[in-house]
């Protein structure tokens, strides 16, 4: 049964039709309920990645509950601007990122990850990955994120200048990053998509 009542801050999926020239299919976007409007509709804030968030008025039959859904519209824009390479032109042991599954795996593990799934329901590309040093973000950014994602007892909230020991935190982060330069991690390279055509043939 479709859920039609949502609470404020509930994570939801928004049914959304991709605009031209993208394929005219209905997809789901990650969103958060902001308020319930007169007439039973909901005001939701849709996450737009680097493009920022936007608010939409949505009918209850266009919403379903969820934990996390990637933003298909934003990813479609990334894919449109990305360099495309054929899977045959890279090594089978190269690590790739599957945004459908939110997982990293090597190209030769693709069949194991999608075994039993019809070909038309499998992704037609994966993202290439890049290696970089694992670093803590700047103190200012961490405090800003903390403030933006919390509700404080003081309704007016806090800003950077309201916190103590900020300079000490900055120095600690610098020392931590300098001492761990050999720690490297993988992340998706959204400038390069690996096309999977004929991979399973």
The total of beta strands comes to 10
User: How many domain modules?
Assistant: 3
Per DSSP, the total helix count is 4
SSE topology string? EEEEEHEEEHEHHE
Q: Can you summarize this structure?
A:
This protein is α+β, with helices and mostly antiparallel strands and 201 residues long. It is built from four helices and ten strands, in the order βββββαβββαβααβ. The relative contact order is 0.15.
Give structural notes.
With 201 residues, this protein is of the alpha+beta class. It folds into three domains: 11-73; 82-133 and 185-195, no CATH class; 139-182, no CATH class. Helices cover 19% and strands 32% of the residues. The protein has four helices and ten strands, in the order E-E-E-E-E-H-E-E-E-H-E-H-H-E. The protein has a five-stranded antiparallel sheet, with no helix packed on it. A five-stranded mixed sheet has the order 6-10-9-7-8. The radius of gyration is 21 Å and the shape is flat. The chain starts with 10 loop residues before the first strand and ends in a 6-residue tail after the last strand.
Please name the defining characteristics of this protein.
10 strands; 32% strand; alpha+beta; five-stranded mixed sheet; 201 residues; single chain
Summarize the topology.
Layout: E1 11-17, E2 26-36, E3 42-46, E4 54-58, E5 63-65, H1 72-81, E6 83-86, E7 95-98, E8 103-106, H2 110-113, E9 125-133, H3 139-148, H4 166-179, E10 184-195
Parallel strand pairs: 6-10
Antiparallel strand pairs: 1-2, 1-5, 2-3, 3-4, 7-8, 7-9, 9-10
């Amino acid at each position: 049964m479709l859920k039609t009542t949502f609470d404020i801050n509930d994570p939801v999926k928004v049914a959304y039709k991709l605009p031209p020239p993208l394929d005219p299919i209905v997809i789901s976007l990650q969103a958060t309920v902001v308020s319930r409007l007169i007439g039973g509709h909901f005001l939701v804030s849709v996450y737009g990645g680097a493009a920022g968030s936007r608010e939409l008025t949505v009918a209850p039959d266009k919403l379903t509950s969820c934990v996390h859904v990637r933003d298909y519209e934003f990813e479609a824009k990334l894919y449109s601007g990305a360099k495309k390479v054929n899977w045959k032109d890279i090594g089978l042991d190269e690590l790739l990122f599957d945004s459908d599954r939110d997982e990293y795996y090597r190209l030769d593990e693709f069949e194991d990850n999608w075994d039993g799934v019809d070909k038309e329901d499998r992704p037609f590309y994966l993202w290439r990955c890049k290696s970089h040093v694992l670093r803590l973000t700047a103190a200012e950014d961490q405090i800003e994120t903390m403030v933006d994602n919390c509700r404080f007892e003081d309704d007016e909230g806090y800003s950077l200048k309201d916190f103590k020991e900020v300079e000490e935190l900055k120095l600690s982060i610098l020392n931590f990053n300098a001492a761990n330069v050999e720690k490297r991690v993988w992340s998706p390279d959204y400038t390069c998509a690996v096309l999977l055509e004929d991979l399973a043939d």
